[in-house]
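Dear colleagues,

I hope this message finds you well. In preparation for our joint manuscript, I am sending the Metal ABC transporter ATP-binding protein (Streptomyces actuosus) sequence together with its predicted structure, so that both groups work from identical material. I would be grateful if you could confirm receipt.
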Amino acid sequence: MTHDTDDTEDRVSEPVIRLHGVRAELGSRPVLRGIDLTVARGEVVALLGANGSGKSTAVRSIIGQVPVSAGEIDLFGTPRHRFRDWSRVGYVPQRTTASGGVPATVTEIVSSGRLSRTRFGLFRRADQDAVRRALELVDMTDRARDPVDALSGGQHQRVLIARALAAEPELLIMDEPMAGVDLASQEVLARTLREQVDAGATVLLVLHELGPLEPLIDRAVVLRDGCVVHDGPPPKAVGQHALPGHDHVHPHAPTGAEPLRTGLLS
Ligand SMILES: Nc1ncnc2c1ncn2[C@@H]1O[C@H](COP(=O)(O)OP(=O)(O)OP(=O)(O)O)[C@@H](O)[C@H]1O
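The corresponding structure tokens are as follows:
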């Protein structure tokens, strides 16, 4: 076995994402309080937790949108501050509005996700094919020329996912991809994700509940108050009320009562 092969094996076996002891503050508020998280190549990991537990902050720290005050983050075995190969990473941010008044067509938005793979921003045949394929994956080919303003929330989410897929990333990070998405779009997204996973992609998903993605999830990491409280098999959903993140307030409880917490978040 040559030295080169050993190197390749090392690269394949090292985690795609590694967080060790990561702390972050927003304002003066500690939001991540010593997070350890590892995602191996080809794994699909769900990041779960109640509102405000730090899920979005954790993924935003991974892609460098939130500064960390302590700890280490590695991407593909490289410390994040030295990592430059961002075309290997597809990021789908948490969707806030359906369109935000963006005066762009579906194709323009999806093409912007391919820029990191082009040479000097010039779209060649392979780049155009990748954009077309990304649109096909999310079933939006027939809307390619439409302004994104004209899309529903679920369709808009599909466009954001196509934008992330256009660069053919090895790692997909998605923040609540199913939030506010109609059933038809949820099914398209679940199928798209399965195809990516079958093709070898590594996926980190922020989810409020496992829902239709449950069969795809290898491991669940549950946050509470900026700490990891579970890292292991995905919790089994036993009806809506037992889903992670569900803080149940009894309708007859006195005003101001603490939520009755169920499942892993209790
Ligand atoms: N820009 C900010 N400045 C100050 N505090 C913030 C900021 N952004 C988020 N926070 C706070 O940080 C905490 C964690 O927020 P974060 O968005 O990471 O939680 P989350 O688990 O993703 O929640 P959700 O499920 O509601 O999206 C919350 O208490 C939130 O209020």
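For the figure legend, we might mention the following. The pocket of adenosine-5'-triphosphate is lined by residues 26-27, 29, 31, 49, 51-57 (CB under 6 Å). Residues 3-265 form a domain with the Rossmann fold fold (CATH 3.40.50.300).

With kind regards,
E.M.
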